[in-house]
Amino acid sequence: MSLVVVSNRVARARANEPLTGGLAAALLPVIEKSGAIWVGSSGRVRDGSHKEPFAEVEALGAGALALLDLPAAHYGGYYEGFANSALWPALHSRSDLIRVSHHDYQSYREVNAFMARALMRFRKPDTAFWIQDYHFLSLGAELRDLGVRNPIGFFLHTPWPARAIMGAVPHHRELIEAMLAYDLIGFQTDDDCENFLSYVQSELGLKIQDSVVTSRYGKSRCAVFPIGIDVEKFALQAAKASSHPDVSRLRRSLNGEQLAIGVDRLDYSKGLVNRINAFDRMLVLNPALKRTVSLLQIATPSRGTIEAYSNLKSELARLVTEVNGRHGETDWMPIRYLNRGYSQTVLAGLYRTARVGVVTPLHDGMNLVAKEYVAAQNPADPGVLVLSKFAGAANELQTALLVNPHEIDGMARAIAAAFAMPLTERRTRWEAMMRKLRAGTAQQWFTDFSEALEDARASNEKTASNCPAAAAAVTSKSWPLHLVGSRSGAGVH
Ligand code: ADP
Fold first, then answer.
1. What EC number is given for this enzyme (predicted)?
2. pTM for this predicted structure
3. 96 belongs to the catalytic site
4. Ligand 1 atom 27: residue of nearest CA
5. Is residue 157 annotated as part of the catalytic site, yes or no?
């Protein structure tokens, strides 16, 4: 049986390259092992009608990676436009930041339709498609329009907001109705799943029973699959990385100070301004902490052509300068602020060096950085995670110091408490979090979703068998979980 995974961005398995973005980081190791074909954007665009989508295919572990050039005429409207200036802000409950032109939705649909045509090359009777994230909400419907009856699942890596917020997205009804072409729709948390179902019920007026929506496409099951990381691998990487030159240099430069670390894409959902303000406030409230603690904030620029992102970058740079100017001394600065990426190995070593991990998004689907920070700790002397209660990870990591990222004083107190926490309490909290991480690895997430997709399609097939035309188009009776490495059909140009 074969699995085709689709996402906008794909990752390449080069150990020393940064892998910024939770989706790519989580998918890479499981896809490498599964033998699946991973299809995504090459990052390049092409002129022309794209009747013949162009894909470069390379080996990826037991499977393959297929990189598509997306249509030049629609890329901007699709990526910077509808996906990242309408859907992303809405999904993160920031409808105030929605900025779209009326062509953007059209471009988004065109790119989804283009991807569907490209995927036909990879389809075999036993193929299951697994579509990732908000870039491709309507891809399943496009595949169904092309006659595809194979199982198609979808997983959303971001949150799903309260019903009224999605109503601010242009064409929201048409788009969300198209999502019901998926056999299975996966979310990070119960809240996300409930919000989606509440939208479907009230805006689309559709029938829902036991989280299964019935629409003109048949049945679509909604369920929760919290994404995880490869815990043991990350822990090992972190232990080894202690001797990496970048990590040793950081340790030497601390002169005995304790470090807090923040690692994020430079995105307004990450609560970076509030975090810097909280660190500032902590130093005001606890002047004795000066020269004994500092914050390393790594903020990798992303989506820089979008105004909300370039504004945030300027605002943060100004704020960090102000805080350093206010508290800094000739031989000590409270904040080290870096706008670059690091390899997973170095990152793991940096996390382990830090006594405190500060992960304080305003709203986040999961936030894998929180999980990585925990996995990277030294079991004999673990650090403390300060975690926003609005990160998906907070559902599992209940023994972190949970904070409200809108409450600056509360965050300041939590960071100070994390620096002061005695070893026994740090260990108790950390061990409980590690148990959670081990129970919900990336591999487990992959297996759980795959099994649920098989079940969801099987029950849809039963429904389809009542309809002779649809039943004839169903080529496989069920979709066995076992995924065999296969590159046949992958040589597409
Ligand atoms: P998002 O997917 O919104 O970016 P997550 O916290 O879920 O947020 O995932 C971020 C991923 O990107 C993590 O795997 C993290 O290690 C990686 N990452 C973030 N910043 C950097 C960086 N500066 N260098 C390398 N990797 C990074």
1. 2.4.1.15
2. 0.92
3. no
4. 20
5. yes
